[in-house]
Structure prediction request, 491 residues.
Amino acid sequence: MADLPEGYKDIPEEDRKKAKVFFDRARTVADTGNYEYAIEMYVQGLNYDPDSIEAHDAMRAVALKRKATGGKPMGMSDKWKLKKGDDKQNMLNAEKLLAYDPSSQEHMLAMAQAAQKGGFYDTVMWVGQMLFRAIRELPDKKQDVGKLTALKEVFKAIQEYQSALDVLAAIIKLRPSDMDLSQELKDLGARQTMKKGQYEQGDFRKSMRDREGQERLMRLDTDVRTLDMMGQAIAEAEAAYRENTADPSLLSKYVDLLVKTEQPDYENRAIEALDQKFRESKQYRYKQRIGQITISQLGRMERSLREQVTKNPNDPELRKSYNQFLRDRAEQELSLFRETVENYPTDSAARFEMGRRLFLLQRYDEAIPVFQQARNDPKYKAAATVLLGRAFLEAQFFDEAVDTLQAAIAEYPIKGDEKAIDMAYWYARALESKGDLPAAIKSYSQTAQWNFNYRDVQQRIKRLRGTVNPNQGQPANPNQGQPATPGAPTL
Prediction:
């Protein structure tokens, strides 16, 4: 294997371990929605391991989420506070500015140039390709030849001649009469031919590990074969969309393919494309799609955290972090669904999901009218009515809870299926809270006959049967006037 380009800087294993502490903290903080602190943690980690592509990807995802929730570019006073220093510090400053203003081509170029001077060539490829896509997404008249030329020189400096050729081809398209560019194209092509096969393109750290006999995967790939098969389809869909950006169906196909990978870097490309289209058209549907991607990402985070809790059931801190994440996730999703309802008042699905988040956040007084509206849609009538009854119950409107759940049972045509069991159980809970214990026992009994292991129905039947003596009348319900479920409710 040939030597790597002059100036490449390898990162010691000890520094990568130090960086990981900050990256782990950044992920935890980002899950709570504290995006600016998460960005700071990533920057501090990158100070130790400035060529970590996984960290760059994660920080980029945080930056896009911050922007989607209204985050603004960094103010002048904060810019003045940025540390001055060497090429590495200049790269970190540019990346932090980019995190606050994710679409800035100036910050992308500054980061690429500083990374090249500092010897962080994987980072050069990461941000350089991002900048190239951002420029090429613009109409020809708006593409900045100066930035393209500077990017070409950066790629040449790290001997990434194929990437330099790609950029040069874009420049020639904008300046077809420039004969010097044609000659440069031949020269770069010759250099690429000589270099081809010497080391893996755009993966300098892996090349160093190979040379040292210390192979190490650079990035986690959950399904290599799937991504390989989808790569060509994504490239074709992107090319088709770039040829006709006015066709929304082409953008939709491109985004769907990117999102299907469930890989953060691909999803970030989808978010970038949607965000640009939203800024151009002001059509909310593109911003709504960004929200849907965010919700999917939050769902994956939840599954990962839940797995950790399951594997470590005796770790109270992990359980606490998981519960806090659930609340933060509900808050963030509530904001997204509320915005959708504001823009699309007839969207029953968004309204129902908005009510569910309000319920999870124990904001029952707000959830009640939302469920009352959502149940007008036949598709959500049964589910919204049950949650409405439960919201009444949690808010201690016991009569209203009983009446609502009784009506839901009467209107639901199927007996004994999952929804019917759920209705019977919560109707019993409402009756118990109201103090009508014989009726509550009867409804609990019906629940048990359909599903004996449903929730805590066995324990409730035994406890209530021990308190009710038909010959002595009915005692007061010890739970009357108390919340239906202690702590945070579940759906």
Observations:
- The first helix runs from residue 13 to 31.
- Residues 347-491 form a domain with the Serine Threonine Protein Phosphatase 5, Tetratricopeptide repeat fold (CATH 1.25.40.10).
- The chain has two domains: 13-215, 347-491.
- Residues 208-227 have pLDDT under 50 and may be disordered.
